[in-house]
User: What shape does this take?
Amino acid sequence: MKLVIVILFLVCSLCDAQVNYYDHIQPIIQSHCISCHAEGKIGPMALDSYENVSAFAGMIKFVTDANIMPPWRASQDKIVLSVSKYLSSEEKRAIKTWIDEGLIEGKEDSIASIRNSRDTILSLSTDMEVIDSLDYKTAVLKVDQPFTHEGDYKMHQRVFVIPTNLDKDVYVSKVEFISSNSKIVLGCDVSVDTTSLGRKYDAMDPRSGYANVIGVGFRPTIMNWYSWSPDDVQISFDGFKVLPANSDLLLYVMYAPSAKRQLDQSQIILTYSDVPSSELEIISEVLIDSSSLSRPFFIAKNGVQNVRAEYEFMEDVEIYAIKPHGQLICESWEILLLEVNGNSKILLEVNDWQFKWQRKFRFTHPVEVKKGSRIIAKARYDNTSENIDIPILPTKDVQYGEGLSQELFLISFDYTQIK
Ligand code: HEC
Assistant: This one.
């Protein structure tokens, strides 16, 4: 027994001693960091080589250990369903060991790097085949004027209105967001509007798009129809989303602070057909908001408030994604599924909500929900001076709304109805 322990100990200290960049660290950086930390991307430095990663070693150890980076805000432990960008404790330990042991470089595996680039090409060509084999059309919709970020060190939120000019409903199987300047775009949320209210707001603002801190300024026909984050995994779905005739796409784009004057002109690429390609319609809908609350929403100054809501499903559904909306004083979210048989599942837990890193959380497998199951959603708001995200002190009473000094409690879902 003793011998076994000694051998195990030896083996483990050996593998620890061998942590090197090419075998252990590069794969972690590739899957968790490079989507943002590459040339021309939102991250302030490129982490694309041994030299660059080593140069920021101290900072990387700090931000990964403190869960600041990657900026994925959902906790990992209890949620098995979600596409997680979290670093596992093994991955964090590998980073720490690598740095503590003096940044061992190791040998670059040229076969592995060839294999990686081939994978990318292969996955692209499969996408193309799907498009060719069915009667799909592609529309490239571009924001008409570039938006200028003045380089004033501030975050900017802008809503761009793009008319689709479609004279009938279409069935969209793929949506892509492409920014012309990924150095400053923190995220984009696309809503669908058939009321022309977006156009009215746009006409009142002389610059490209219109300014609005949160959302599009009103409840659009379809909210959170599509959401993009810099590190999104594009999960292709067999289903489709309906885009109603004559609708406008409203692109709510969040820009990071910048010290330099910069331009951006975003585009949306839609792949659609005139007839539904499958049975599976993915519906994007707000299922929980202030009307789901048992008490009126109000957060007193200097107060900490828990808010809770319930929603009961009246039919069998499958949930693909959820997007909670809170603002600056919102601190955490817990979204549970309470099944008819009494079991409960945590769909999402965010312990350090940050407005800037809001996103649509997609599940790797749709979550099956039987009729009569309920969603229990809880959020916590910290309106005390302890909360470093509060922009102006002293704190004030906070009402429900989309203004910067108001707060939201709203969750949209992507789901399909099971017939
Ligand atoms: C979704 C995009 C994104 C991902 C993924 C991401 N980062 Fe970042 N990172 C940023 C942005 C943006 C900043 C600038 C600071 C900020 O906005 O919070 C940043 C800042 C940093 C900093 C500097 C911290 C500072 O104090 O300025 C380090 C170091 C860092 N990231 C390392 C990493 C590492 C390591 C990973 C992967 C484990 C990672 N990041 C993943 C976007 C990202």
About this structure: The chain has three domains: 2-110, 134-273, 283-417. Confidence is low (pLDDT under 50) at residues 8-14, 117-130. The two ends are 58 Å apart (CA to CA).
